[in-house]
Amino acid sequence: MLVVIANDLPPAVRGRMKLWFVEPRANMFVSGIKNSVAKKVVEYLHRHCPSESGLMIFNSSSTTPGYEIYGLGDTRRDVIEMSGLQLVIEKNTVPLNSADLPKPS
């Protein structure tokens, strides 16, 4: 399975993605394509999308841990690695104010 989440895709790329993928939300694509085809799709996206596209790509894999995460450009999420696992964290869009933090008791 391949899941592609983008901030914005060029119209030609988005149109091509709609041929093989389901688009449950705008700029979110899901497909059950094979790993060999998924790698070609990832290469295509890296070649044809500018960094402003903000791609986050999740691909199922037969190797441990069972998935791979790719990114391109500035996304709304960050990928971190912890104990050999790739994890996604949401970026904090609202800066924390020290007055909003709970006081230690």
Instruction: Enumerate how many helices there are, as a single number.
Output: 2
- Quote the distance from N terminus to C terminus: 47 Å
SS strand fraction: 25-35%
Radius of gyration: 17 Å
Helix content: 10-25%
Which CATH class? Alpha Beta
Order of helices and strands: EHEEHEEEE
The CATH topology label is Alpha-Beta Plaits
In which order are the strands of the major sheet placed?
Answer: 2-3-1-4-5
Largest sheet: 5 strands, antiparallel
Oligomer: single chain
Number of strands: 7
Low-confidence region ranges: none
Mean pLDDT: 82
Would you write up a description of this structure?
With 105 residues, the protein is of the alpha+beta class. It has a single domain (2-93), classed as 2-Layer Sandwich (Alpha-Beta Plaits), CATH 3.30.70. The chain has helices at residues 11-20, 35-48, and strands spanning 2-5, 22-25, 28-31, 55-60, 67-72, 77-82, 85-90. The mean pLDDT is 82. The strands form two sheets. Strands 2-3-1-4-5 form a five-stranded antiparallel sheet, covered by helices on one side. A two-stranded antiparallel ribbon has the order 6-7.
